[in-house]
Structure formats: structure tokens, C-alpha cells
User: Fold TetR/AcrR family transcriptional regulator from Marinitenerispora sediminis.
Amino acid sequence: MRADARRNRELIVTTAADLFVERGPEVSMEEIARAAGVGVGTLYRHFPDRRALVEAISVDALQRLLDYGRAVSEQDVSGWEALRLIVRRCTELPLALATSVTGGSALPGRAELPGLVQAVNAELEWAAARAQREGTLRRDIPAREVIALISVAVCRPGARIDDPLVRVVFDGLRATGA
Amino acid sequence: MRADARRNRELIVTTAADLFVERGPEVSMEEIARAAGVGVGTLYRHFPDRRALVEAISVDALQRLLDYGRAVSEQDVSGWEALRLIVRRCTELPLALATSVTGGSALPGRAELPGLVQAVNAELEWAAARAQREGTLRRDIPAREVIALISVAVCRPGARIDDPLVRVVFDGLRATGA
Amino acid sequence: MRADARRNRELIVTTAADLFVERGPEVSMEEIARAAGVGVGTLYRHFPDRRALVEAISVDALQRLLDYGRAVSEQDVSGWEALRLIVRRCTELPLALATSVTGGSALPGRAELPGLVQAVNAELEWAAARAQREGTLRRDIPAREVIALISVAVCRPGARIDDPLVRVVFDGLRATGA
Amino acid sequence: MRADARRNRELIVTTAADLFVERGPEVSMEEIARAAGVGVGTLYRHFPDRRALVEAISVDALQRLLDYGRAVSEQDVSGWEALRLIVRRCTELPLALATSVTGGSALPGRAELPGLVQAVNAELEWAAARAQREGTLRRDIPAREVIALISVAVCRPGARIDDPLVRVVFDGLRATGA
DNA sequence: CATGAATGAGTCTTCATTCAT
DNA sequence: CATGAATGAAGACTCATTCAT
Assistant:
């Protein structure tokens, strides 16, 4: 893929993500193209249809999250702190969108999405398991459920790391002895 | 209002609420009408446009919730229990929808909505305040914030009273001494 | 026909005529009914469909014009003056409407309209012919054409007897010697 | 603007004008598109809504009239003859439509219409003033009113240069000495 | 017999997608 | 290869007309 084509692709994905966040899920393809400074034709050259674009946004966001998560894991931070860091990053990415897409059925032949979701979850579960071993995270909820829970709390449009909801969720997850 | 008209109106509101919950916010008016067994014209006679219909659904749900909340308050239950009961009822009503509407600007001249939201909130705050006095609910979060928090947790599409999220929220709200 | 029914009918016809003049030809049947203070059902009881109503307005207006024209003819006024009087009356009646209807095809089985148009024309032609004999109206245009001309000048929406157009038409029709 | 787009635009404007003249102001957009041999989408790409289309027709007609009027003025014809020529051209253009539009309020930001009307009127007034100086047009009516008058006579649906109405108007405007 | 609720065909308009330039 | 014009299916909404109350 040529350098300019790659740049266009990037540009479209990030522009579209921003537009979806700012103006809801009904932005038109035309508008996305205009905001990205390209013609619709170009948009469709990169993404055969709307779903492909939305999926690309998700893949992009999940990829960034995964990169970040792995970087964090290589750092020397506690499991609990890792969870918090990753969750903060979640709120900075268009993951509400990603989630709504994940909820739907993935396009056949485009299997990146489930794999990425899997990988991100693995990263989070590992952090959660560590935190449980460290005694900071409740042990009566399986790590898998902890993650599901955090996902719900964080993958809402407009979620922020210091939302009352997110704060209380972390309080609720804190091991009672801690 | 004639008896058959009232019946149709009810029918439309409940059918539409169900459809919105099942199939998302983009169901077409035509489809709603068909599901309710009436013509589009009838739909539009009762609700001048889509927004009016959605608003009516919210008003209806909030009204039911308020009725229930007041009935609960007259019962001899603890504040904590009242909270749980009201919250359970929330999950049975299309309040995710209601909330998304409340977020938008109310239609001019149709001031029921803010009033209802107010009234429901008052009911919930009263239960929360009682629970704080009873020593079962954390006192370091103002009752008002507790409600905001619960609203966020409960007014998601598909929320259930025994969701992990809702369970953890309640755990997080429990007074540490309790 | 009962007295109240006749009164309703009258009411509807005049109300509708006013509305058509004020707000153009697209007023809805519902609105006409509301303005007349009756239900749509009543409106439809009197007029099987929209065309019938519009036709009734025309018949009504032409009938009034004919009555007036005959009254004028029985008076002792000159042909020229008669023309002016009748024309003034035209501008007070919703004849622009009437004309647009006449232009269309009359409803089968409702032959009043052509007859009335005929009768009114006859009255006008007679006045014109008298004016020609009196030497006040140009003789080089057949009376029939004079009438056609006046009709065009007068049966416009918003026509008034002292419009520049109408004034010049009368000037142009004046016998040069007069 | 691409060549094919311009061609389509032209095609739509003229087709629509014809249809409006032939079948009245209620022709559907669908029908206009079909008659022009394009899809509705194309129609709407060129004209964001019905009003814009009607306005474009008017602008188009007035522009042609203005071009013609200026060409006539550069010819060596008398004021009276210029008036007649311009008026004949009026009857060949969909100016009845144009006029009905002019009557309504112009779209904000689309100020061509008032300007064009102004320009055409200026052209006509200049011809009228010349005719008055030449002694062929009555001097007791201000040129401006003469134009208003001619406009009324000519901007009717179906007006023709040799209508009795138009003929008599010109007769009525002729200076009595001429 | 009046009323106004119900009906549904028809209108305007939008937008994902295709295709000529 | 980018562009943006063309397409038409689909949705929101209106209104003449019918029919239950």
C-alpha cells in the first residue's frame, strides 16, 4: 500500500471516529468523506461499505488499546494499577463505538475483531488475576466477570475514568480487607 | 377521548417501547404502526412526529415508575430495600429510552417530562437518604450523587437487577460498616 | 333539506371560499371543517369530495353574480355603467377560484356550472351590446370578445376594480369618440 | 461544474418549467425527475428542495428575458416596439411561474431573484420612458405603473402576445394623439 | 345525523452505494 | 487512482376519504 493511500486510510478512520463520537451514529458517509477531505469514492475505495468502516474504527481502537495494555504489562506496576491504567485508556478511545459493533455480528472474512477483543480481554484478565493474587481485588468474582463488568462501566458513550459510576465500580471491586 | 382511541394510544406506546428495546432506535414508524396493528395515519394522529412518540414512551414509563415508587414508599420497607425495589422496576421499564430522551431537550409546551424526572428523583433520593440514616448506605456520597450513579448503571439498554454491574454498584454503595 | 343542514352547508361554502382566497388552493379538508366549526364527516356529508366543494363555491359565487347582474339590468343604468357594476361585483366574489374550476372539466351529472357561466356571460354580453349601441364601448371588438377580455382581467386572484390593469382595460375599451 | 452535470441541470430546469406550465404547480418531484430522464436523487443534488427548483426556473427565465431585453435595447428600435418585443418574449417564457415565486419571499442567501427582477424592470421602464418621449405611450401614467400593468397582463398562465387582453392593454396605453 | 378516529396511498427528502469523468 | 455525479430504495410525514362511535 502506497504511503499516501495509507495516510488517507488513517485519516478517514480517525476522522470518522471523531465524527461518530461527536454527532452520533447517523453521520452520513458523504459527511465523513468531506470531513476527511476526500471524495466519497475514495472512502469507498478503502472501505467497501459502512460496516467495514465502523469495523475498521473498532479494530483501530482495539489495536491501540492492546498495544498500550502490553506496554503497561511490561512496566513494573501492580495488577490493580494496570487495570486502572488500561481502563483510563479505554475512555480515551472510541470504544463505545467499538463495543456496539462487537455486539453485532462481525463481517464474515474479517476475523480480526474477535481476535483483538480476545487479546484485549486476555490482557485485562491477566491484570485482574494479578490484582486478585495481590489481594487488592475481590476474589469472589471470577476475573472474567470482573472484566465484563468493567467493560459495561467503561464502554458507555461519554464514560470517563473519574465518573461516579466508574469510581464506585472500582470501590465495589476492591477487596474488603484492602 | 373516545374509548377506542385511548386503547389505540396505549397499544401504540407499549408496542413502540417493545420494538425500540428489541430492535434499537431506528425502527421505522411504518413498522411500529404495523406491529401495533394500526395504520401510520393513526400513529401520526396520536403523535405528531417521532419525537413525540418517544417522549410519550418516556412519560409513560416514568409515570409507572413513579406510581410504583410511591406505592413502595407507603410500604414498611427499609430505605435500602426501597432502593432495590425501585431499581428492579427500572430495569423492567424502557427507561434507557426514557433517559436518552431526557438527555435531549424536551419539546416546548410538553413539560411533563422534566416534572416526572424530578418526581422520580425525589422519590429515589428520599429512599437513599433513609438508607443513609439507617446506616446501610455510604454517607460520603451525597444522596443526589448516589441517584445519578444508579441511573447510569440502570438506564443502559438491557440492564438487569442482577447484572454484575448493578450488583457491584450496590456493593460499592454499601456502608463499609454494614 | 332541514334549516340547520342548509345553514351548515352555507357556512361551509363561504368559509371554504374565504380560506381558499386567503391561503391558496391547498387548504386541507380538515382545516376547512375546523374553520367552519364542523367535523370532517359533516363536510363530507354535504360534499362527496373536494372537487364537489370547490364546484359548490363556484356555483354559489356565480349564482350571486347572476342575481346581482339581473338586478342591475332591471335598474335604469347605461350599458357601460352596468358593465362596471357587474365587474366590481366580480372582484368581490371568489371568482378567480370559480374560473380555475370552470377551466377544468365539470363533474359529470353536475351541469349547473356551464349553465351559470352561460347565463352570466349572457348578462354581460347584453350590457356590452347596449354600451356599444350607446356609443361608449368600442364597436370593433365583438361583445363576446369584450367579455372574454374582461373575464381575464377580473378573474385573477386579488383583482380589484381600481387595479391599474382593470382601469386600462376599461380605457382601452372606451369608444375613441366618447 | 462538470459538463454532464451542467447539462442535467439545464435539462431539469427546462423540463420542470414545461411540466409546471402544462400541469399546474402540483407536479411531483418524482414526475419531474422521470420526465427529465434522471433519478430523484439527481434532482435533489441540483436543487435541495422544491422551492429551490422553482426559484431556479424563475432565475433562468428572468435571465433569458434580461439577455433578450438588452439585445433589443442595443438594436435601433423605437421604445414602443421594444416594449412589444420584450412582452412577446415574456409570453414565451414561464414567467407566470416566476412571478408567483417573486411574490413569495426569496430564499435567504439566494439574492439573485430580486436583482434580476429589478434589472428586467429597469430595462422595461427605460423602453417605456423612451416610448413616452417618442409620443407613442400615454404620459399620464408613470412608466413604473405602466410596467406593473404590463406585468399583470402578461404574467398570467397562458398569456399570449395577441390575447385580446394584451391587445387592449396596449391600445389603452397608446397615447391618444398617436 | 354529527363527530372525529382510522386508513393508506402518495409526497418530499435522505443517503448508502455505484459509476462516469 | 480520486472525484463527485447519479441512482433508487426507504423513511418521515400529509391528507383525502371512509367508517365506527
Summary: The two ends of chain C are 52 Å apart (CA to CA). Residues 50-74 of chain C form the longest helix (25 residues).
